[in-house]
Amino acid sequence: xxxxGIPVFLSDDAKEGPRAFKEKxxxxxxxx
Length: 32
Prior knowledge:
Order of helices and strands: HH
Distance between the termini: 18 Å
Helix content: 55-70%
Structural class: mainly alpha
Strand content: under 5%
Oligomer: single chain
Number of strands: 0
Low-confidence stretches: none
């Protein structure tokens, strides 16, 4: 399962969460 989880951390969605928090807006996940 760990190998399958690693790409999530490299995805745009993984960056979108902290970016949205920093910009004080709701995250817009693309599920990619």
